Amino acid sequence: MVALVNMMLGEIIVGGVGAGLYGMLLFVILAVLIAGLMVGRTPEYLGKKIEAKEIKLAMIAILMLPLGILGLGALSTALPAGLASVQDGGPHGLSEILYAYGSATANNGSAFAGFGANTVYQNTMLGLAMLIGRFFIILPVLAIAGTMAAKQPVPPSAGTFPTHGGLFVGLLTAIILVVGGLTFFPVLALGPIVEHLLLGTGTLF
Fold first, then answer.
1. Whole-angstrom Cα distance, residue 94 to residue 190?
2. How far apart are CA 84 and CA 72, in angstroms?
3. Which of 46, 202, 56, 87 shows the shortest CA–CA distance to 99?
4. Does the structure show a pLDDT above 70 at 173?
5. What is the reported pTM?
6. CB 101, CB 69: distance < 8 Å
7. Cα(137)–Cα(127) distance, integer angstroms
8. Phi first, then psi: what are they for 44, rounded to 5°?
9. What tens digit of pLDDT does each residue of 99-149 get?
10. Alpha helices in the chain, H assignment, sequence order
11. What three-state secondary structure class fits 45?
């Protein structure tokens, strides 16, 4: 589950320099928006104002991970062609699907040993997950970079929310946990968490 959570959050904890950095920057934009709403000011980051265009692009990028992992993974739990690739039943079977689509969307496309990924259906859907995870996240991030580069810096004022202290780190951490928790915790509870609890009773899959 720990590896799954890391991929589901965009590898912002441990991951590649590029993917982890721009994944964290998406959450930073969301955090400065929340901070701006709390103090009643237009959010700013690194001296540049964050406006509606950047927020929309950031939300598109953030929503691509649930689309690839939960959306395409749900199809594999509902369609016979998808279920045919699952070796084990119960929560472990769900974990197999989650890991395959989580890894395809966020990482390098690995899968559990028992998951039959080499089928026409899985090759197509996992390839689509990789497409979503690469381009549909990177393109909005590049668009954000372009709009931010074109803006003139704004000097900090008394109402500017500082983004370099412990308060902002705490807010950013809370945003990541809330967004990740609300998005992925229900399916994790049905897969790896239930499996772990059942292992304590001696139930194996």
1. 8
2. 15
3. 87
4. yes
5. 0.88
6. yes
7. 15
8. -130, 150
9. 999 999 988 788 888 899 999 999 999 999 999 998 999 999 999 999 999
10. 2-8, 17-39, 52-66, 72-78, 80-83, 90-106, 120-149, 166-188, 194-199
11. strand
Running DSSP on this structure, what letter comes out for residue 48? E
Q: How far apart are CA 23 and CA 15, in angstroms?
A: 10
- Cα–Cα distances (Å) from 170 to 22, 73, 123, 175, in that order, read 19, 32, 40, 9
CA distance 183 to 3: 16
Look up residue 129 and give its two tokens: 């997950």
Q: Could you tell me if 91 and 194 are in contact, meaning their C-beta atoms sit under 8 angstroms apart?
A: yes
Please count the residues of the chain: 205
Rounded Cα distance, 120 and 124, in Å? 6
Residue 164, both tokens: 């370099």
Q: Are 98 and 4 in contact (CB under 8 A)?
A: yes
CB distance 104 to 117 below 8 Å: no
Structure tokens at 13: 């904890």
Residue type, 61: A
Dist CA 167 CA 31 (whole Å):
11
Residue 158's contacts (CB-CB under 8 Å, 6 or more residues apart) are none
